[in-house]
Amino acid sequence: MATVEHASAKPAAHQTSTGLDNAKIAMWAFLGSECLLFGAMISTYLLYRNHGATGTPLPHEVYDIPFTSVSSFVLLMSSLTMVLALASIQRGDHHGTRVWLIATALLGMTFVSGQVYEFTIFVREGFTVRSSPAGSAFFVLTSFHGAHVTVGILMLLSLVSMSLRGRLPTERATAVEYVGLYWHFVDVVWIVIFTIVYLVPAK
Predict the structure, then answer these.
(1) d(Cα 159, Cα 71) in Å, to the nearest integer?
(2) Residues 33-64: pLDDT tens digits?
(3) Which of 25, 96, 133, 156 could disulfide-pair with 105, CB 3.0 to 4.6 Å?
(4) Rounded to whole angstroms, what are the CA distances from 29 to 26, 124, 157?
(5) What's 172's DSSP letter?
(6) Do residues 143 and 99 make contact, with C-beta atoms less than 8 angstroms apart?
(7) What fold does the segment set 22-199 form as a domain?
(8) What is the C-alpha separation between 122 and 145, in angstroms, rounded?
(9) Which residue, 61, 96, 65, 118, is CA-closest to 168?
């Protein structure tokens, strides 16, 4: 009887006709809208990346591809630690969950720190958000992505805080899953940005 009562006390997810709960559908809808925003910004960058101003460099003239490649690798590795965090909470390993969530957050912080450092170098070279249309398009796009990574870091740290206070039981593993969806989205978007902005040669 106690087992039945305990099972019935668990919050049931609100299922839809798709078999997914409302929260997951809402997250996918949100990520879909984010795809449109990033798509618009990437398109804008492609339109203006060769529109410089007299005496100011174009984006491809100041890029440090090796440095950005390392930063990109760090961010991509954070997807692995995010997967490990979800696997840990699903099997009831709360210590492992916190370890991998913190590792993911630290990798994200490393990426953002590298982006800030890169921006300072660009500014010293005369490539700023106000220097040219190309500069505006570049900084708006990459800063917007960096802001998303920062939000993801705050979400990860919130999960760690919840776990430490005992508010993230195995039954609430979906919370980690939803944050993981957001984090993987941010990583995939960066792959697209890095490829188009940094690797595709300007004509």
Answers:
(1) 24
(2) 999 999 999 999 999 999 887 788 988 899 99
(3) 156
(4) 5, 40, 24
(5) G
(6) no
(7) Four Helix Bundle (Hemerythrin (Met), subunit A) (1.20.120)
(8) 17
(9) 96
Residue 163 pLDDT class (50, 70, 90 cuts): very high
HSE, side-chain direction, 13 A CA sphere, residue 145: 30
What are the domain boundaries of the chain?
22-199
Residue 26: how many CB atoms within 10 A of its CB?
Answer: 12
Which pair of structure tokens corresponds to residue 116?
């800030």
Q: In the chain, what is the greatest distance between 2 CA atoms, to the nearest angstrom?
A: 79
Q: How far apart are CA 85 and CA 57, in angstroms?
A: 42
How far apart, in Å, are the Cα atoms of 177 and each of 3, 25, 166? Answer: 26, 13, 18
- The structure's pTM equals 0.88
